[in-house]
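Quick sanity check, 3-hydroxybutyrate dehydrogenase:
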Amino acid sequence: MASKHRILITGAASGIGLALTEHFAAAGHDVIACDLQRGALESLQKQLPAVRTLAFDLSDAKQIEAAFASLGDATPDVLINNAGLQFVSPLEEFPPEKWQLLIAVMLTGTALLTRAVLPSMRKRNFGRIVNIGSIHALIASPFKSAYVAAKHGLVGFSKTVALETHDVDITINTVCPGYVKTPLVDAQIASLAKTHNMTEQQVVEEIMLKPMPKRQFITTEELVGSVEFLLSPAARNITGQCLVLDGGWTAQ
């Protein structure tokens, strides 16, 4: 990926988003780091002064519109839809507002932000959109109905946008990793231990790693490398696809 890009990353203040932000900023790209947590973004900007930050709520369409309008002509040619959250509960006990929030952030927010970037990408006849999905975009796990529904939705959404952008040099793909050791997954371990009446170590071994023949967490470095490949000229005809990093999980 020799050319420099303006890259907008959501959920940029921690976990996978932070790893992506650090990598692309270090590589000399113009990075716009977006997150709901203003304090975390302020810390990020102190660490990486060249990175521009935007704080807004992806579950709020008006905030998305205002944030994008604030960019003026400095619109991104690369969008990485990474922001995500999890809630673990049987469906009968799932708070409706939590269900709606997960869908709003990970599916509707992704769609609205993609909708916002497409006109300028079309104008310059170039754009790369990468959704950070999950193994749960392809398979399901109990007690994660909203997350699984949102991530499955991303795959269908990406296929549709790929067809709608066939006439320009725009691609959209979804990276689908197994479990990545991030603060989001650490929080899940505690929730799943409670839900399944297991120890946290049992959750790691029996729920997270057992389905993966390679039995290891996916690293943020692997995720970053996969995204970088999808931005490269070698991937210009890869669109509407899932790039799966699952240690053999879905090969079974």
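Posting the structure with no commentary besides this: The two ends are 34 Å apart (CA to CA).
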